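Protein in question kept underneath.
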Amino acid sequence: MAWYAVYTKSRTEKKVALRLKEAGIEAYCPVNKREKQWSDRRKVTEEPLFRSYVFVNIDLEKQSATVRRTLGVVNFVYWLQKPAVIQDDEILAIQQFLSEHAAVEVFGNTLQVGDFITIDAGALKGQQAEVMGIKNRHEVRLRIDSLGFELVARVE
C-alpha cells in the first residue's frame, strides 16, 4: 500500500474522493476553508487545496483499475514513467499543516533549491523545510518535494 496522486477532471475533486471512498478506496482530498462574503451573508466554504488532484492509498496492482474506472478520474500522476508515489509523512504533514493553519495557498514550485533545514520546535517539529527567504510579512512554508508544491500560511 502506498499513496498515489490521481489527476481528476476540473472541479470534481471532492466528488471523485467521495466516489473512491464508496468503492472502498482510501482517498484524501485536502480542503482549505475560506470565508466568502456575499451581499447578504458570509459563508465558510471548503475548496480543494490542490486543483484537480486527489490522493489515494492503494495496492497499485490490485486497485489501480478501480481507481481508473471511477467517474471523474483522468489518470494517475506520473513521474519518470511510473505513478508518482507520495510518502506517508508528506500526507501527514499536509494534514497537520491544514489543521493548524487557515487560508493556506499553494504555489507551483518554480524556485531554485535553497538551504534545507529540520524544524526543531513547534507544530512542524521534525519536518524538512526549504528556506525560501524573508518577505515583508511572515510566512510559514512547507515544501512537498514529491509533488512540487509549497503550502504557505501567513502568520500574524
Notes: The helical segments are 13-22, 60-69, 88-100. Confidence is low (pLDDT under 50) at residues 109-113. The two ends are 39 Å apart (CA to CA).
